[in-house]
Amino acid sequence: MTHDVNRWHSSPHSRLRNSGDTVYRHQSRVVEWLTSLWPDAPRAAIDYAASHDEQEAQMGDIPSPEKAEWSEELRRLYEAREAEVRAQMGLPSCPPEWAAQVAFCDRLDAYLWATRHCPSALREEPWINLRDDLLRQAEGFGLGEVGL
User: Fold this and answer.
1) HSE on the CB side for 111, CA within 13 Å?
2) Are 49 and 28 in contact (CB under 8 A)?
3) Residues 6+ apart with CB under 8 A from 81
4) Is the pTM of this model over 0.85?
5) Among 16, 59, 129, 143, who pairs with 8 as Cys (CB 3.0-4.6 Å)?
6) In whole angstroms, what is the distance from residue 94 CA to residue 79 CA?
7) Residues forming beta bridges with residue 6, ordered by sequence position
8) What is the pLDDT of residue 64?
9) Mean pLDDT, 10 residues at a time, the chain of 148 residues
10) CB count, 10 Å around CB of 102?
11) Which of 39, 33, 1 is nearest to 113 (CA)?
12) How many CB atoms are located within 10 Å of the residue 17 CB?
């Protein structure tokens, strides 16, 4: 399990690298976001949110900005491998109709963590784009600005 795995280990910002966040705490916050924004979320989506990064214990963690640079084919292959590893580990899969909500909560948590622990990072391109994406998604979900 990845409970004590440090998040932000590859961040260029020392304040994020040393913020004390762990995968376990992050996954717990994603569940909190999911259930507070969508109280009707099904148990399968909640279970997935609670374990969505566990495969990193075997596969390692590749930062999102790096993955964003990948080709569509490489991204598809990586996601397929993640699904295989999750299945081998006995972890739940995400109900397809809830994948967007869980991904939103995952990214929202990252953005809000950075807001609290390294606000200077938010002036940089990846974070500016993330905020814009989150605002668009929140509007599409009918959520408003959700604290952004």
Assistant:
1) 24
2) no
3) 59
4) yes
5) 16
6) 12
7) 22
8) 78
9) 77 94 94 98 97 88 82 92 93 95 97 96 93 96 88
10) 22
11) 33
12) 16
